[in-house]
Amino acid sequence: MASQCLVIKEMYNQTELEKEGPNWKRELIDEIGEECREMYGDVAHVGVDPVSSPGDVYIKFIDTAAGTRGFDPHLVDKIVVVTGEARGLGFNMAQAMAEVGAKGIAVIDQKRAIGVPRKARLEHV
Question: Which of 6, 8, 9, 81 pairs as cysteine with 57 (C-beta 3.0–4.6 A)?
Fold first, then answer.
């Protein structure tokens, strides 16, 4: 499933950036927004939450095409592993990875009866 939103985990070291001055957060957001616009397409919002998720960056693109391109450099021709694939978020992540060009997807779930039919659906993406 394509999405216009991305979360990049542990992208920055907050302690190091705080040493650069009080405007570190705004400068980081501007830099990420500019780079994402140049590489993937128009960005609606870039956010960081140094209190509840230090290091994580949240990016929302104007449309799903730009969001999907944000996955491409990391997943095209790669083999990925998705755990908990049989339902909900796991299946949606596996589907999104197939749509953006992952070479192969290993899906792992304890609920084999649910996972096998879902696997057949992924093979047609």
Answer: 8
